[in-house]
Design brief:
The protein is an all-beta fold and 114 residues long. It contains no helices and 10 strands.
Length: 114
């Protein structure tokens, strides 16, 4: 299994970024996919979940209304659109196939700073 995250970078507060995660080595369309984030000070936090068909999504209150997860099963890719970014969103962002042990990429760094 391989998951490759991209799209991170440096953005000012209030800005937007779109992350992508390209998956291979497993049947992507059968798995619920998640985005997590982690900083050195905190445990890994779940920030978005999307069902295998893409018909249901879940977000924690900290990102609800600002982040949107989506997927394209034809492209084996899951996305995370992040709007109204805040400094506290700064973290390394990872995608993960729920229930697939070891399905973690290397992550992509998101830094929100003026």
């Amino acid at each position: 299994v391989q998951l490759v995250e991209s799209g991170g970078g440096l953005v000012q507060p209030g800005g937007s970024l779109r992350l992508a995660c390209a998956a291979s080595g497993f049947t992507f369309s059968r798995y619920t996919m998640c985005w997590y984030r982690q900083t050195p000070e905190k445990e890994r936090q779940l920030v978005a979940t999307i069902t295998s068909a893409g018909d249901s999504t879940v977000y924690p209150d900290s990102v609800k209304g600002r982040f949107t997860i989506s997927r394209d099963n034809a492209k084996n890719t899951v996305y995370l659109q992040m709007n109204s970014l805040k400094p506290e969103d700064t973290a390394v962002y990872y995608c993960h196939a729920q229930g697939y042990i070891g399905s973690w990429g290397r992550g992509t760094q998101v830094t929100v700073s003026s």
